Amino acid sequence: MTDAVLTAASTQVLAERRRFRMLRQLAAHRSFRIGLVLVTILVLCAIIGPMLTGIDPTAMSIRFRFKPPSARFPFGTDQYGRDILTRVLHGGRLSLSIGFSVALLSGIFGALIGVAAGYFRTLDPYVMRSMDALMAFPAILLAIGIGAALGSQASSIVVALAVAYVPRTARIVRASVLVIREMEYLQAARVSGAGDLHIIVKHVLPNSLAPLIVQLTFVFAYAILAEAALSFLGIGPPPPAPSWGNIIAEGRDYSVEAWWVMLFPGLAVSLAALGMNLLGDGLRDVLDPRLKVET
Amino acid sequence: MAEQPLLSVENLTVQFRADAGWVTAIDGVDFSVRPGECLGIVGESGSGKSVSALSILRLHSPRSTRYASGAIHYGGRDLLTLPQHRLRQIRGGEIAMIFQDPMSSLNPVLTIGDQVTEPLRQHQGLSARAARRQAIELLDMVRISDASRRIDDYAHRLSGGMRQRVMIAIAVACRPKLLIADEPTTALDVTIQSQILALLRDLQREIGMSVILITHDLGVVAEFAQRIVVMYAGRVVESASVAALFERPMHPYTEGLIQAVPDPDRDVRRLATIPGNIPDPSTQIAGCRFNPRCRHAIKSCLAERPALIDAGAGHFARCPPRIAMGRIA
Fold it and tell me: pLDDT exceeding 90 applies to what percent of chain B?
């Protein structure tokens, strides 16, 4: 009796140790590390940064218009004399949360739609043809349309971008579900009496999770870029609240005289996109147990 | 001998949707399994043995499959008309199944333990801890060494033979009354094959379950089964006890199969073969479906569909001319 308890306890420990192995592999993955560092820095800056500088990102000052980067204004100031550093830090909050929300929303709906289409084959033609119809519009154009219809505010940008990226995500999920549903382990699960829901939750979703997560890191990156593009085109989150996109948009008229207004938010956007992409690559390599090397 | 069969398939006809209407994959198949017995189903690829097996648990895609006639009696019910939720209780609980390819029968993202405990939790409602303990016992039972460690491994760390053992552990987890083994050793090499068969035999004895063993390897059934059903082109052509079938095959097809087995004691340059291929299920063949390949075909073979005839002592064959000859002799 105590023996059985003992072995049960020791196998529990072993199981936990194996869970950690995935984390160790991630930690050893170079591009994942770089991506993680980049993203972490940007996220921390967005969270803590505004508290540290203690400056109002919308406070204007005629005296300090278009000051180039200096000790007092490390990133310079814009046409209203607002501190670019503060605005970039604040803008990060908005841009990153838009990116995150878009990734989350398109992940949830993409997974639902993709699994429905891939698993229940009768639904497939209807679901996927409507996804194709959505996909026929360029993502930005679609987002412009939806954003314009919903009015320019952060939440409508999120909805617009999510609608634009759901079809792509659904497609990827569907493709992996199509492969998984032919696997004998699904047949085996059905033989042991599992129902559709159980099979989807326990077998189909976990197996399609790796490509989905990887796709979502890219959606995150695209969403940040697209937010910038939409703001640039004038349908992003409205000023004066800063987002990376609308700082760039406001700076574009003065890009020759005051390059710093566009440069720093632009750098932030690029670094965020790069970081998420590297993160995604690393996750893809490690998450898939079939690619795992024996240790 | 007059024991009630555990499961009996009667006059089962299964059709699949094809481009040009419905194609009959198996046509009026009958067989039964008695409690504790091992029934072998043999036949070449495309003869309908797997289709019959999958039909027992209604595992064909419902959209493209039609059970045109017949019944599958099990425990006083017909599995073909059983409501879905009742069927799910039988699957894995009372009737379990293992497949040909152990490499893809295990989910790569779940640990062995997750998959062995699944039927235990599903059918017996065990707690996670109790299921785990029992899973370790099951892995021990299928002779996986160091089971308490292996249980947390993923499938890719196991060899083909080990994976088939895990599949067997999953299948027998709820001590089923019937195990359907669809070519369980085809994908394995010969030494592993005999280990797996020995394991199946021991488990069968221990649990007292019946086994339906589907294979195209006559050697495997000869060793393992008590009775054999030979299928050809979607029909049962012969069924008999192992001894009777090997000593006195009635159907020319069975005879051909037995002659095609290499015999190490005889020096034979060329193995006997059966000329031709199994017909495509969509082609219509009048009379006996084997007649284009049969050396003994006579006029009546081309015209009338032969019936499965009792040749005495539980030996059935679908070849009236041969049986008539046998009676005279």
Answer: 26
Report residue A19's pLDDT band, with 50, 70 and 90 as the boundaries: low
Number of domains in chain B: 1
| Domain-embedded: residue B315 | yes
Domain range enclosing B259: 241-263+271-329
pLDDT at A101 over 90: yes
Q: Is residue B150 part of a domain?
A: no
* B247 within a domain of the structure (yes/no): yes
| Contact yes or no for B170 and A188 at CB 8 A | yes
Domains of chain A in sequence order? 90-237+255-291 (1.10.3720.10)
pLDDT > 90: percent of chain A = 18
Mean pLDDT throughout B57-78? Answer: 89
In DSSP notation, B119-172 reads: HHHHHH---HHHHHHHHHHHHHHTT-TTHHHHTTSBGGGS-HHHHHHHHHHHHH
- Cis check for the bond before A240: say yes or no (omega within 30 of 0): yes
Phi, psi of B29, deg, nearest 5:
-85, 135
Residues of B with CB under 8 A from a CB of A: 57, 59, 63, 88-93, 96-97, 99, 101, 104-111, 113, 115, 118-119, 122-123, 129, 132-133, 136, 148-149, 151-152, 154, 156-157, 167, 170-171, 173
State the Cα–Cα distance between residues B126 and A170, nearest whole angstrom.
Answer: 36
Residues in chain B with CB shorter than 8 Å from the CB of A192 are 91-92, 96, 118-119, 122-123, 170-171, 173
Model confidence band, residue B326 (pLDDT cutoffs 50, 70, 90)? low
Contact check, Cβ <8 Å, A8/B129:
yes
- pTM for the structure as a whole: 0.75
CB A219 within 8 A of CB A169: yes
pLDDT-based confidence at residue B72 (cuts at 50, 70, 90)? very high
Q: Cβ contacts (< 8 Å) between A196 and chain B: which residues?
A: none
The alpha-carbon gap from A184 to the nearest alpha carbon of chain B, in Å, equals 5
Chain B residues whose CB is inside 8 A of the A292 CB are 154, 156
Spatial distance between the Cα atoms of A85 and A75, rounded to a whole number of angstroms: 5
Tokens for A237, please give them: 């989150």
Residue B298 in any domain: the answer is: yes
Is the confidence metric ipTM above 0.90 for this complex? no
